[in-house]
Structure formats: structure tokens, C-alpha cells
Batch of 2 targets.
Target 1
Amino acid sequence: MLKIGLTGGIASGKSTLCTLFSQHNIAIIDADIIAREVVEPNQAAFKEIVQLFGNTIIQNNGTLNRKQIRQLVFSNTEAKQQLEDILHPRIRQQLIQQSDQLDVPYCILAIPLLLEADMSDLVDRILVVDIEIEQQIKRLCQRDNISLQDAQSIIASQSTREQRLAIADDVISNANSIKDLTVLVSELHTKYGALAKNIQQ
């Protein structure tokens, strides 16, 4: 089975691409969804994170206050590393486990931090959704209702656009309309289907 790693900067349009690929009945394994699942109250990671940050990060409904955790690690590189040490191995394990259970020609592993978390070895090809920095900042401010300064800081904490493009096998520009993106995804779907057949032969 061909494994396509979909990545891109924050607010670049990864969710849109996932939706378009799913319209072709392609299995999507989303690292963001896994990240939320592994920190549910009954999970071991939940307890480790509470030990790390204290009970104040638990909300009234018993779940973690993800926004508060983001703020805590944003300016604290040591805490950020400790959190990643808890989360990334579990996310990696789930990505492997869930993809190994599939019996399809190809699947999409949507991994926002594919480069930062050093997970490129999990996939056969890397698809980067690319966006101009100015457009990315605008989208992030609107989506998360944050200031320009906060948006710039978040983007600066991730891999650069150039670093992502350097590892890409395929690139889709999100400067396109949704209609154009639909066509581009259809073309990639055909391409990946053909590549997957070559692997099977």
C-alpha cells in the first residue's frame, strides 16, 4: 500500500485537501485527531500531561484545556519538548497501527508536524499544501481569532515554507479556488492510484 504524507503549515488548507481526497473514498488518517484521542481522560498520556503541568489544566468537564497548554508551551521550549516526548511516540504508533490495518491501494496520512516530528519515514511520498505567508497569516487570524503578532509567532515556531517544499514529492498551491483544488486533487488521485498499482506488481 502506498502511504502519502500530507503536510503543510498551520491554516494552509490541509483539512480542505483531506475533504477532497475523502470524496474519492480515500482513507484519511489524521494525526490531529489521534493527538486529541491520546489525551482523553482515560489515556496514559492524560495523566502524564497533568503531572507535567498540574491540575489547573483540567477543565470543568474533566478534559485538558488545550488552549491553555498551547500557551504554556509556546514560550517554554523545555515544556514544549516534554509535551512532544509524551505525544509524538503515541501518535507515531497510532499512525503505523491504523495504516497497517487498511487494505486499500493508497491512503493519506495527514501529519501537520511531519517534518518537525521527524515522521517522514512513515510515508512513501510527501504532499505539501503550499500557501503564501501573507495569506497564511490572514487565514490563521480569521480562523483562530488571534492577533497578527500571535499568528506570526505560531508560524515562526513551525518549519519554514522552504523547508517543507524541499522535502515535497508533490505540491498543491492553496492560492487556487476550491474548484481548481478539486481538479488538482483528482489528478493526484489518478497519479497515486497508478503508483500504487506499480508497487503491487
Target 2
Amino acid sequence: MRIVIVGAGMVGTQLARHLIQEKHDVSLIESNEERARYASNHLDCLVLRDEGNSLATLEDAGIAKADALVCTTDSDEVNMIICGLAASQYPAVLKIARVRNDDYVRLNPSGKRSGSWEGQKILGVDYFVHPDIEAARSVLNAIEHGAMGDVLVFANTSYELGSIEIAGSSTFDGLVLKDYHSLVKNESIVTLIDRKGTSILPGGATTLTRGDRVHILAKEKELDTIFKFAGCSERPLRKIGIVGGGRVGTLIAEGLFDRAKDKPGTREPKQEPKKLRVILDFFKRLLPKSVRRVIIIEQDYSMCKELAARFPEALVLNEDISDEGFVAEERINNLDLIVTATDHQELNIITAIYLKSKGVHRAIALVTGAGYAVIARQLGVDVVIPMKSVVVDSILSHLMGGGVKGLHRIGDGSIDIIEIEIRPATAAVNKPITAFRLSTRGLVMLVNRGETSFIPKGDYVFHAGDHIILIAKHGSETEIEKFFGVSL
């Protein structure tokens, strides 16, 4: 594919790097001299230092022959205007805009895909990608599972992929995978192991050891039990603290209270503003898990006033979370869970670690990129949400060719989870699963056929219409494309 990216910030650069690794033809436009120089020195692609809202610049970048245009600048309006400008001359080009303003959700409310919207085009934009909603939904999914580890949710299936670090006292420490099902009786599979910065696709002879982060596919209701085998004890999250009352923090609180209102015996919820109702519609409906009290901690006084008016059920504290006296005075150390969602990733990590050392049971931290996510996990943060990676994954899902329904990167970034719909007249149809072998190793880990989902066995045969989820290393794209007739 040929892709033009406007904006060489962290999202644009990370997206371009991934696409270049996958052998796509990428052009990058950036007006900032320092960013453009960095991209030119670190990426093997055409980099233009210019404004993206110029048709001449877009044409210099190759928009006339491009398959897609992705706008990731810091301005929602600029992203949308650039897409509109391209649409006026090149309507066939796929156009994706990153936006953070909730009002734009109302303009394009129909359809959903991985935290993005599709439906009636606004200014020619095919897909809006909203990072705050995607991040908040990831946090809510983690809370649903007791914040014991990262959880990846797949649409239209009861299975989820959870990752958790093996504790030294757990029954997983020293377990050879061929003996895995003698311990874990339910239907599940260990799909990936992160060991000392390296991602391993395991086999039957692989031995789990203390400190490994294992990625396990299992049904939603059984994942928590498997986490306990890894040495993680479940505890009801009755008192939850949210540090940061910005966009993400507010959406997390809305998600928690929206589900609490569904409980029997709770009072009738007040009518929400139309904008807010539209946003909440895009969250996966979660089961409430013993939420009793929510505390929101925000340093900005005016923001606290707005939060107190919006969330009368919550305790809103206008305080500096880094003040040790405040932590002791307000008994913040007795929280079951702390979610650090400020705009400063270092503060989020430090706060999460500090409060855990003071007695908070579990911690979720939002960070900017995958590099900080690795550091935060190694320092003891239970769940880390890398926001830029979430946005890039969402964009990549839209850029994939026909038949590809989603793409997620996990582990050290060299492992892809790909959701594929098997179309008629492809090589895979009516072939047994044993016919699918990758030179770099890979695994078909889940099949969704109609209303049934299952982990495929040796007698599974690919059928047209099956939705499959496979895990593979980078470098497998050509083999996957050939077998399943998709474009990666």
C-alpha cells in the first residue's frame, strides 16, 4: 500500500515505522523542522517539511497514487481540513483523522470499530480515531478483571487475551507447557511469553519461570481463575481512585458510574447530555464488579468544580497527589485500586508505584508509548495502557486490506495478533489447520463461526465466513497473505 501520513509526532512516527517494516510505501509530511529532521534521520521514507493543508504538498507526497491518507497532527480541525482537501480531488483515497474533541463524535455517530467511528462522512473523513475513548475502554476492561493484568477483548466472542506476570510463589513457576492442562482444566492456551525483553512463541517443551509475562487466551469468566494460578490473588475493587480529571479520567468515571447505575436497587439515573450518551454508547458493556466508591483527585480547582457537578456520587478532591501529607490525611493508601490518568506519564508511573508501596492493592497507569509501558510493568504497575500504541493499532486496523478485521501488536512489538475473515475462493478454504504453517512460527488461536467461538484443534478445517484470530511474528506477512488472500 501507499500511505501518506501528515504529522510526525509520536503517533505518526510510530505508525510510519510499523508500515515501513511491513514493506509499505510511506510518505510523511511535517511542518516542524525538528520533528521533520528526526523523522528523516530515523525513517526510511520520504519526509516533506511543509504544511499538510496544501494540495500541492499532498501531491508532492504522492496523494494521487496513494491508497490512504492518515492525519495525526495535534489539531483536530487541521486533520479534518486536510482530509476534506484530499477528498475534493482524490475521493477514492481512504482518509483517517485523529480527533480528541468529543463534539465530533456527534457528527459521525453511526458504526464503531476499535474505538473509531464510521458512517456518514464528515469533510470526507472515512474514520475518526479518538484516543481517549480507546484508552478509557482499555482501563474499564482491566477493572472488570480486577486489574490483575492487561486484557485484550475481541468482538463477538466470549474469549479474551489476558497477560500477567508469573509470581515466584505461583504454581506456574517451573511448569512445562505440555503439563499445562493437567493444572488448568478449562479451555485456554498460552499464546506468548515475554521473557527479559524478548517475545517467545512457546511450544510444549517451553518452561514457565518466575518473572515471565504470559499471554493466555481463555473465556472471559475463566480468565480470573487462571490469573490466580499465576500468583495473582483477586480482591473486590470496592474503593477506586482516579488521579487526573481530564478527558480520559472523566470517561473512566463515566464508565464506572454508568455500570453502577445498572445494579438492582440503584436510583434512576439522571438524563445525560446527548454528547455524553453518544460517547458512552461506544463502550463495551461491562459487568459491574463491586464498585462502591470512586474518588477523583485533581489539582486544578475549576476542573474540580465541574467534576463535582458531573459526579455527585464521587468524592472529588482538589489536591496534589504528590503531597505525601495529603495521601496520609485522606487515607488514600486504603484504596483497592488507583488509576493514574494525568497528562504526565512519569507522574502516572511514579504515583502508581508510590501508592502501591503505601498499601494500595492494585494500580493502572496511562503512559504515552510502549517503551514506558515496559518500564512501568517492570517497576510493579499491574496494568499499563500505552495511549499512542492504542491509537496506532486502531489506525492500522483500518489500513489493513479486505478480509482483515483488526490488528494488535503485543509483547516487544514484534508480535501481531491479526483478526481475519476467511473469504470464498481463497487458499485456506476447506484446508485443515495443519496446512497452515509459518516459517517464523505462528498459531491460529481462536475461531468465531456464526455465534460459536472455540480454540481450534487438530481436526479443524477452515470454512468460508469463519473469523479467525492468529498470532504471528513480523516477517510472516507474505505467507499469511498467500494462504488467506488478505493484504497486510
